[in-house]
Design a protein that fits this description.
By secondary structure, this protein is of the alpha/beta class. It has 16 helices and 15 strands. α12 packs parallel to α13. Monomer.
């Protein structure tokens, strides 16, 4: 149980006080336009917390990671463009520090006035952020904590990481859960502890191995488990079908066979797929039965009959959890499966959750109405680990 929330902190009064906020600003960038953010959903998600603190007169110091730099500064992963976008969303300038705990950050944090917001440079430019050594991580957390009087974690997308800014800072400063973290946990409790039946889970993405634990955790609870994306081909192989050049985890075929047996018909697989000659938007492609994928082609999307089959299962649900696209939605010829399934989810007479990651990106990339979903999570990995029943370090820290 999380002990204190942002509302508790605001009730105590923060005017003139320094508040360190862990946000998840790990936004994607346009590959053809470096420095241009392609989806600012994560930045928008933390706005209510930042606005509440700013308007209450706090001196707000925001920290986040971006990408996977190797513990040293890398211009490719600078948060500078994110500071600009965050300022646009807030309607007021966000000061940017060119380092995380160095001279620039120290000077700018010290110069903050009431209601100002500062964004520190990428946390992962410092090896202490992700260090396995507890002492190294704690030392970096101490440097971060020195900036502030209070700590607020509103980065649900990072709570499954035992990192300095997520786990160790909370041991040093009075700590509070932001509104986004509270909402995410409440939603996930709803779909794990008391989902209204019928309960349908839609899983996509590349690998069965990535989703195996969540499949095992959810299978006893669901009425239907719909499987698309690259992971479906390992299941199809387990049924005895050839899958051509499609993505395949040979070592997982036996596991998939066991899951299909255990599920007794509750795992639903595609009945047709869009098979292409290569992984390209310009590739020749054709829709074929899932049992007849040509040897020289690879499946890149589920077909229209599969969309109809999945939509029928989704249509009768009272609870739907969706994680992972049905195909390579970034390429126009292979986006119809994800779009069709997503649209079916928006029409249910019940509660739907989009489990973050690529699923959330697909909603925005395909121009779907975000408000038509019950909840769009900001944390794909964190959502899955919660559903698996794992202890999330960031949540554990907030409970102490």
């Amino acid at each position: 149980m999380i002990l204190k929330t942002l509302d508790d902190l605001l009730g105590e009064g923060v005017s003139g006080r320094r508040v360190l906020v862990r946000a998840d600003l790990n936004v994607p960038f346009d590959k053809s336009n470096p420095g241009v953010i392609s989806d600012d959903g994560r930045a928008r998600a933390v706005l209510p917390t930042l606005i509440a603190l700013r308007d209450a007169g706090a001196r707000v110091i925001v920290m986040s990671h971006l990408g996977r730099p190797k513990g040293a500064p890398d211009p490719k992963y600078t948060l500078a463009p994110v500071a600009t976008r965050l300022g646009e969303l807030l309607g007021s300038e966000v000061v940017f520090a060119g380092d995380t705990v160095g001279p620039d950050a120290q000077a700018k944090a010290g110069a903050l006035t009431d209601g100002q917001v500062l964004l520190l440079e990428n946390l992962r430019f410092n090896e202490g952020e992700t260090a396995k050594d507890d002492a190294v991580r704690a030392a970096f957390a101490g440097e971060l904590a020195a900036f502030a009087d209070f700590y607020v974690d509103d980065a649900f997308g990072a709570v499954h990481r035992k990192h300095a800014s997520v786990y160790d800072v909370a041991a040093v400063l009075p700590h509070y859960a932001g509104g986004l973290v509270i909402k995410e946990v409440d939603v996930l409790k709803k779909v794990t502890e008391s989902p209204e039946q019928p309960y349908v889970v839609v899983l996509g993405g590349s690998k069965v191995s990535d989703k195996l634990a969540v499949i095992k955790a959810l299978l006893p609870k669901v009425d239907k488990l719909l499987v698309g994306g690259g992971m479906c081909f390992t299941f199809l192989k387990a049924q005895g079908h050839e899958v051509g050049k499609s993505l395949l985890e040979d070592e997982m075929v036996g596991t998939c066979r066991d899951l299909l047996s255990e599920a007794q018909g509750r795992i639903v697989l595609p009945v047709d797929v869009v098979a292409a000659t290569e992984f390209s938007a310009d590739a020749d492609h054709v829709t074929v039965p899932a049992s007849e994928i040509p040897a020289d082609r690879l499946g890149l999307d589920i077909g229209p009959e599969s969309v109809a089959l999945f939509a029928e299962a989704i249509g009768g649900a009272k609870t739907v959890f969706w994680n992972g696209p049905m195909g390579v939605f970034e390429l126009a010829p292979f986006a119809a499966g994800t779009r069709g399934v997503a649209e079916a989810i928006t029409k249910i007479d019940g509660f739907s959750v989009v489990g973050g990651g690529d699923s959330a990106a697909a909603v925005r990339t395909l121009g779907l109405d975000e408000s038509a979903f019950g909840h769009i999570s900001t944390g794909g990995g964190a959502s899955l680990e919660y559903l698996e029943g794992k202890t999330l370090p960031g949540i554990e820290a907030l409970e102490k």
